[in-house]
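Rotation project, supervised by the postdoc (A.L.). Task for the rotation student: set up a whole-complex structure prediction and record inputs and outputs verbatim in this book. Inputs entered:
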Amino acid sequence: MTMYLDHAATTTMRPEAWEAFEAAAHSLDRNASGQHAEARKAKNALEEARERAATLLGMERPHDIVFTGSGTEADNLAIIGASLASGRRSVAVSAIEHDAVLNAARSLERFDFSVDLVPALRSGVVDLDAIGAAAASKPAVLSVMTGNNEVGVIQPIARIVEIVRRVDREILVHTDAIQAFNSEDVSLEETGADLVSLSSHKFGGPKGVGLLAVRKGVRLEPIIHGGGQEAGRRAGTYNVAGIVAMVAAMETAAADRASFKNRTGAERDVFESAVLAGHPGAKVTARTTERLPHISHIRFPGILAETFLIRLDQAGIAAAAGSACQSGAVEPSHVLTAMGFSDIAAGECVRFSFGWDTPQGAGWRAARSVLDVLGAL
Amino acid sequence: MRALVAMSGGVDSSVAAALMLDQGYDVIGVTLKQWEGPDGSMPTAGCCTLSDAEDARRVAAQLDIPYYVLDYVDEFTKAVVEPFAAGYLNGLTPNPCIECNRRVRFSALLERTEALGCDVLVTGHHARIEEHDGTHRLRRAVDGAKDQSYVLHMLNQAALAKIRLPIGEMTKTAVRAYASDMGLRTAEKPDSQDICFVASGDYRDFLAERLPEVAAPGAVLDMDGAVVGEHPGTAGFTIGQRKGLGVAIGSPRFVVDIEPAARTITIGTYEDLLVDGCAVTEMSFTDQPPSMGESVGVKVRYRSEPFDAIVTAVGDRWEFSFDEPQIRPAPGQSLVMYDGEYVLGGGVIVGDRRSVPMVL
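Outputs recorded:
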């Protein structure tokens, strides 16, 4: 029997998204920018989807949503696009950001930007004192993710925004909410951020679609140039089927939030308790910090994650460690390093993540399987 | 029974994986990520590159076996790359493939084989392992021209018992024909000759980059130590080299010695190049060590035929008296002992037979 515990990498597409995708791929297959009836039909569906997404994110103007080709692209547009459009020459990002944010920020060094890395505490929460200091150096953009993709720690975004605003109202605050959308309200109003990135496939939509929610009046320099789509902020022929399917998944996910939190949280808690009971040496990362409900990050001292993952895979359990690089080798995680883990400790950590379709009882069954594999090691 | 197959992305290891399936094993394929570019990604030039890993992955998919990339960058850097550069500076010419086999593939990966629940470790090397009455012997490959037993001499009984080398039983032509029949994408892939972590394919560039000393000009000395010319950097020379010495003397001259730290090369006549023996340390044996005074075949370079020598040992230092004078083996290279087709063991050459041993 196989058991999928890697929903944080990508989760199952929701039936509502499948349905929307199939319908759109069949009947809305023309270029939405054209001057004819079929194009108008596609464009209409696209704009209707944009309005629904705006409603979900509590935004007045649908055109403040920019559709992108991925969550990574949304992060890049936020960091690079907003920085280049500002007159400033530095950016600040937390040390536990996803590579999409970290490397987008680093790419600005080529344009003579300086990059300020805001440290995290051992709890996995970004150091709020350091946020104030970073804001004082007047970066164009300050970016802190809503919920971490590896350890699940939720960042106090509203509090961070408050600190930043008190220092300098001109700083644009970006939050990568890609991992958090399933369980958290990540609207501009709720987070207080100026820029929010989302990725479709993390909440049950198709891959290859994302969006950036932009506060009214924030200027973005495009990073993809071409035919002027998305009000000149992101060129490229519209992926109509992908976008309408993403928005269908968004609506379902948003309506499912409270239940998702309860369901995955319960499975996760049972899973962790059972693993700890059966393998007392294991250590749950950030267990006492507020975490996303679907992520469990556990260190198994003395057991190399690389080996453990292969043994889990052989037993039909899909889990993850660190972040997979292009070759597929497991690399040491910069998130864990930022939280004070030694390289050895970081190499002993495995992430198990649950999803909207995780069945009841899966946490307990998963723990049993994980303990079986541990017993064979 | 479960087999862990080290897949480099070449034809030999591709076929090795297929053969283990034929033998009824459950097979897991792995590629070792041994070195990386400055951004931490897989290298794109040299061997064991990203595209090689991709070939291995595609072959594994075709064979329908699980496949993983294992990160051995730290181990490989510490055990192979750094000693290679440091050894060179001490006047040694280490063989990185042998050090990799000794310290990474057949130590760390062999341990990992067990941790992954596998019974045997399989590679695509051209060599044979035979078992007679519980004793395992390492034998030259069926295809003599492709024989790699030299680089496997460090395997002991415990390792030999855990390793399978199915390719050693086949000629290269047969390996390619098998791959071709199976429709494996690596069937026609050329053999790799490079040192895997040397991206440019030329180890001299790699050395020059890491060790500025070896790319700096220095003196060419004659056998009496008198300066007879200048050279552009010691990295460009190997012992026995005749061409490119930049010195015009009546009779042919050869590189007899290289001292990178002093930036000198010493040249002499062909006779100066000949020695009648060498000293070896760090010896290991596939089974029992040879008896003192025994005559064994010895191979002092990867691509040369064994010649006969008499072996004696004082403590850890082994001496080999050659039956006929031979071109001076380069210190740092491996000497491997053979009994006919069978490997007895080997070690690292530290100097000429009666010279003062170099400090490793």
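Student's summary: Residues 3-12+256-376 of chain A form a domain with the Aspartate Aminotransferase, domain 1 fold (CATH 3.90.1150.10).
Supervisor addendum: The interface with chain B takes residues 304, 306-307, 310-311, 313-314, 325-331, 376-377 of chain A (CB under 8 Å).
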